[in-house]
Design brief:
heterodimer; A: about 110 residues; 4-stranded antiparallel beta sheet; B: about 120 residues; 7-stranded mixed beta sheet; 11 strands
Chain lengths: ~110, ~120
């Protein structure tokens, strides 16, 4: 199985700040990667697919990048509504696997 | 508006069975792959099963293979998850999810249903 390792596990940032979350795959996943946001008590929502494609309705302050085994999610100008847990997911090979999550809080 | 509504969760003893249902609306259900994904309390996400558009192909991770069965009724816009031989480690919130464009990205999720396996 492909292991997905996210860092950091938790992150505290101020409003307006730029934050970056990393996701490392145990093997090359050829940009077959998604990012999800899970707000407290809610279901996950798709933010990014194919590593850098923004899903419909997602604010442009979110962006994804990366290739091979290393990927990142960047949030520009952090807003209060961005407080969430963020998960990466690979769909290159079955079983599809998720990272352990990054909990983003406001400082 | 896309909606996915799961039902059927609850408390069940180890070794027993439970069947989850997910009713879909707001899109052409028969045109999309569907999935079940679970999240143990305070933990991360785990893909549990996939089913193609006509129900002829299904997929599972080793952790549930042989115990769980996904199925669908396109006339009723419903996807099911039959869970047999339940274990304590199956305790989780189970989400039904819709595929974005046949790639294995989950663009809509239900609200989730809690399954607790305990004696």
């Amino acid at each position: 199985d492909i292991q997905m390792t996210q860092s950091p596990a938790s992150l505290s940032a101020s409003l307006g700040e730029t934050v970056t979350i990393e996701c490392l795959a145990s093997e090359d996943i050829y940009s077959n990667l998604a990012w999800y946001q899970q707000k407290p008590g809610k279901s996950p929502q798709l933010l990014i697919y194919y590593a850098n494609s923004l899903n419909d309705g997602v604010p442009s302050r979110f962006s994804g990048s990366g290739s091979g085994t290393q990927y990142s999610l960047k949030i520009n100008s952090l807003q209060s509504e961005d407080v969430s847990i963020y998960f990466c997911q690979q769909n290159y090979d079955s079983p599809w696997t998720f990272g352990g999550g990054t909990k983003l809080e406001l400082k | 508006e896309v909606q996915l509504v799961e039902t059927g969760g609850g408390l069940v003893q180890p070794g027993r069975s439970l069947k989850l249902s997910c009713v879909a609306s707001g899109f052409t259900f028969s045109s999309y792959w569907m999935y079940w994904i679970r999240q143990a309390p305070g933990k991360g996400l785990e893909w549990v099963s996939s089913i193609n558009t006509d129900g002829g192909s299904t997929y599972y991770p080793d952790s549930v293979k042989g115990r769980f069965t996904i199925s669908r009724d396109n006339a009723e816009n419903t996807v099911y998850l039959q869970m047999n031989s339940l274990r304590s480690e199956d305790t989780a919130t189970y989400y039904c999810a819709k595929d974005r464009e046949g790639e294995g990205y989950f663009d809509y999720w239900g609200q989730g249903v809690m399954v607790t396996v305990s004696s």
